[in-house]
């Protein structure tokens, strides 16, 4: 074998290791859109709270329920957009959408996220909603870090940023809303744009 | 000379190198997953897994998922060590020349 063959061997090894263990067809564009949905959702929530309540949220009030519904819709639309765009990209890359790497990615992402979601719902029913924004950021960040081993490694850094923002929100619950806007809105848009130019456009 | 001796003849084939690469980063892989990733035919893949199994570089487990037989492969400690040696040797060869 010549040197050229050894080089080819090494690059083939790297390629197979990545392809077999990581799902890399995540779409950057879906991150941008998720960020925009979050900003729209936050704007609606801000408007509702600002117009109809005097700065305090009542857990059993209609405003609170509407805000929860808006949050739910933001999450739902983000997931649907993510699935649609990622499927499209996977098809273009010739990557299987539902193989062992994407299954592992999803389960590692969902475990911290679902645990966190349930925890947040439990403390909400106990009336402790001052920490909700921070907790959402922290658990989402942990989910990203945990999933990053099975996808583009870069999402780990987004995870670290979300965790940091979450901890800051825990220290200053008064800014929870704005940190949530930064974490879920602005960071998604920035990150999605970086991913889009780094991986999508080739 | 020591570099050349670390080049493992058993890995001197695209499919075998591929099988080992996949198994190094995955706890296990089944026959179909290997086949898809490597783009090999059944017979071809089977002969290479057999060679690696004989050298005790990989472990083969046969089981049933429902009624379908399923063969899954994983690396042994020996296989991992040999593969690492092989990769180091490859890298050294590239840097020397």
Automatic annotation (TrEMBL), chain A:
<feature type="transmembrane region" description="Helical">
    <location>
        <begin position="178"/>
        <end position="197"/>
    </location>
</feature>
<feature type="transmembrane region" description="Helical">
    <location>
        <begin position="61"/>
        <end position="85"/>
    </location>
</feature>
<keyword id="KW-0472">Membrane</keyword>
<keyword id="KW-0812">Transmembrane</keyword>
<feature type="transmembrane region" description="Helical">
    <location>
        <begin position="23"/>
        <end position="49"/>
    </location>
</feature>
<feature type="transmembrane region" description="Helical">
    <location>
        <begin position="105"/>
        <end position="124"/>
    </location>
</feature>
<feature type="transmembrane region" description="Helical">
    <location>
        <begin position="130"/>
        <end position="148"/>
    </location>
</feature>
<feature type="transmembrane region" description="Helical">
    <location>
        <begin position="155"/>
        <end position="172"/>
    </location>
</feature>
<keyword id="KW-1133">Transmembrane helix</keyword>
<protein>
    <submittedName>
        <fullName>Uncharacterized protein</fullName>
    </submittedName>
</protein>
Automatic annotation (TrEMBL), chain B:
<dbReference type="Pfam" id="PF13601">
    <property type="entry name" value="HTH_34"/>
</dbReference>
<dbReference type="InterPro" id="IPR036390">
    <property type="entry name" value="WH_DNA-bd_sf"/>
</dbReference>
<dbReference type="InterPro" id="IPR036388">
    <property type="entry name" value="WH-like_DNA-bd_sf"/>
</dbReference>
<feature type="domain" description="Winged helix DNA-binding">
    <location>
        <begin position="15"/>
        <end position="94"/>
    </location>
</feature>
<protein>
    <submittedName>
        <fullName>Transcriptional regulator</fullName>
    </submittedName>
</protein>
<dbReference type="InterPro" id="IPR027395">
    <property type="entry name" value="WH_DNA-bd_dom"/>
</dbReference>
């Amino acid at each position: 074998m010549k040197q050229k063959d050894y080089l080819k061997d090494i690059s083939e090894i790297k390629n197979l290791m990545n392809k077999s263990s990581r799902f890399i067809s995540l779409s950057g564009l879906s991150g941008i859109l998720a960020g925009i949905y979050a900003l729209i959702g936050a704007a609606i929530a801000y408007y509702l709270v600002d117009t109809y309540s005097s700065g305090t949220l009542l857990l059993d009030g209609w405003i609170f329920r509407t805000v929860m519904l808006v949050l739910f819709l933001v999450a739902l639309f983000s997931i649907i957009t993510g699935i649609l765009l990622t499927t499209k990209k996977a098809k273009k890359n010739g990557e299987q959408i539902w193989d062992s790497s994407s299954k592992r990615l999803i389960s590692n992402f969902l475990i911290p996220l679902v645990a966190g979601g349930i925890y947040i719902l439990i403390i909400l029913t106990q009336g402790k909603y001052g920490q909700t924004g921070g907790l959402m950021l922290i658990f989402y960040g942990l989910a990203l870090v945990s999933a990053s081993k099975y996808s583009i490694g870069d999402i780990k850094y987004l995870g670290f940023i979300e965790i940091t923002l979450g901890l800051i929100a825990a220290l200053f619950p008064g800014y929870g809303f704005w940190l949530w806007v930064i974490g879920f809105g602005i960071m998604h848009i920035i990150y999605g744009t970086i991913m889009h130019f780094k991986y999508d456009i080739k | 000379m020591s570099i050349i001796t670390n080049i493992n003849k058993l890995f001197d084939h695209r499919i075998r190198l591929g099988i080992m690469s996949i198994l190094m980063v995955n706890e296990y892989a089944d026959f179909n997953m290997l086949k898809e990733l490597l783009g090999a035919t059944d017979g071809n893949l089977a002969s290479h897994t057999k060679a690696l199994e004989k050298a005790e570089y990989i472990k083969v487990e046969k089981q049933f998922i429902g009624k379908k037989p399923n063969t899954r492969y994983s690396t042994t400690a020996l296989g991992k060590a040999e593969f690492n040696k092989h990769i180091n040797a490859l890298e050294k060869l590239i840097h020397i020349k």
